[in-house]
Design brief:
Order of helices and strands: HEHHHEHEHEHEHEHHEEHHHHEHEEH
Distance between the termini: 56 Å
Strand order of the largest sheet: 2-8-7-6-5-3-4
Radius of gyration: 21 Å
Largest sheet: 7 strands, mixed
Oligomer: single chain
Number of strands: 11
Length: about 400
């Protein structure tokens, strides 16, 4: 039965992991894998998470199914976290949350919902975008299109983006990154989001907002600006949220699809369809990660600890961005790479060419995606001088 099945190339980032493991260079640096790392290069379990898990272990009484929409206790904390404690959307009963296996699972729920309930609608993603967006939406049978996001000089191309959005067919779906754009690190400011809102309203587009990095740019509420702006000013919005990064629970697969509808009745109609989509995909989401999040956010003490830890993570990344640009100053490259200090989140479109990336890997054991996307959390005070000298070398400056 399987004789004619061909082998296909593996995921590029997973391939980097394997190559990095085999590299014997004692100074090797992993800037490829998209997880947070501390100063020691580890992805630690947050203290608030550990304490919440201890409470869960002590008090848990069952391992039964939690239902296609997930645990109500999880939804109770995710909705105000994303939409705001005083959200008029929540007050009007316009929003529904469905717990999902990570942000990826939420995206697949959204994709299958669009494919089944909004047939014929195309979906538009930024160029570039998170590569898995392409696979998820294509697998759901939705016609995929791109709008410009970064120009040839590796700068945010907002004019090109806005011009393209104005040409999208009425009623199509547009994928927007709320903050910490993956893979570029270039985010829109509040004025630019206002302009995007106006175009979305004019073209009657359906925003699908990918919100995977809440808390990693400026703060939990600040990073939610675009999400709340769209939800409060549009009748229909899809939001995919992830707790993988801001709670550091990557392997617990904890996400959510939030649907904002015109009114409560319409929301309940959509919610019923999302339950069917979830049932057909995986039946029930995993419970443990959602239980952790609910335990933390239902406790004033644990939430305070979590917020402090998240602030430390965000500040560390922002500091490393500035320190990297400063480390390039002796080589006269600080202005060329100044944008890295201005970007936000874990990822940076560095501007390094594929050939330069190859040299960094082969000559220095520094690993990143060939597009030049680097995980800034892989920087440390110890390896920054080494990385800066290597970058200068491939630029002909060292």
């Amino acid at each position: 039965m399987f004789e004619k099945i061909e082998r296909v190339p593996g995921d590029a980032i997973l391939g980097l992991i394997e190559a990095f493991r085999k590299d014997t260079n004692p100074q090797k640096v992993d800037l490829g894998v998209g997880v947070y790392r501390d100063a020691q290069g580890s992805t630690p379990v947050m203290r608030a998470v550990k304490e919440a898990e201890a409470l869960l272990l002590k008090n848990e009484t069952t391992k039964t199914y939690i239902g296609s929409h997930g645990a109500p206790s999880y939804g109770e904390v995710v909705l105000p976290l994303v939409l705001g404690e005083d959200s008029p959307v929540l007050a009007a009963g316009r929003a529904s949350v469905t717990q999902s296996p990570g942000g990826t699972g939420a995206l697949r729920l959204a994709a299958d919902f669009v494919a089944s309930q909004l047939p014929g609608k195309g979906i538009w993603v930024s160029d570039p975008t998170w590569p898995n967006h392409h696979g998820i939406f294509t697998a759901a049978g939705i016609e995929l299109h791109k709008y410009p996001y970064v120009d040839a000089d590796n700068r945010l191309d907002f004019d090109g983006m806005l011009s393209a959005l104005k040409q999208i067919p009425q009623g199509d779906v547009v994928v927007l990154h709320a903050c910490c754009h993956n893979p570029t690190g270039f985010d829109l400011n509040q004025q630019q989001w206002q302009q995007v809102l106006e175009v979305v309203q004019q073209r009657d587009l359906l925003p699908l907002v990918d919100f995977a990095y809440q808390g990693f740019a400026e703060g939990l509420d600040e990073d939610a600006y675009a999400v709340r702006l769209l939800a409060e000013n549009l009748e229909s919005v899809l939001i995919t949220s992830s707790c993988s990064k801001n709670f550091g629970i990557y392997n617990e697969r904890t996400g959510a699809l939030i649907v904002v509808a015109k009114d409560n009745e319409e929301m309940e109609n959509v919610r019923s369809q999302i339950a069917i989509v979830a049932r057909e995909n995986y039946s029930n989401p995993p419970a443990h990660g959602g239980s952790i999040v609910a335990e933390v956010l239902h406790s004033a003490e644990l939430e305070k600890i979590w917020r402090e830890e998240l602030t430390e993570m965000r500040d560390r990344i922002n500091t490393l961005r500035r320190d990297f640009v400063e480390a390039l100053k002796p080589y006269g490259l600080d202005e060329k790479y100044a944008h890295i200090a201005e970007q936000r989140g874990m990822f940076s479109y560095t501007g390094l060419t594929p050939e330069q990336v190859d040299r960094l890997r082969d000559e220095f054991g520094i690993y990143m995606v060939r597009s030049g996307r680097a995980n800034v959390a892989g920087f440390s005070s110890e390896n920054l001088p080494y990385i800066a000298k290597a970058v200068a070398t491939v630029n002909g400056k060292a």
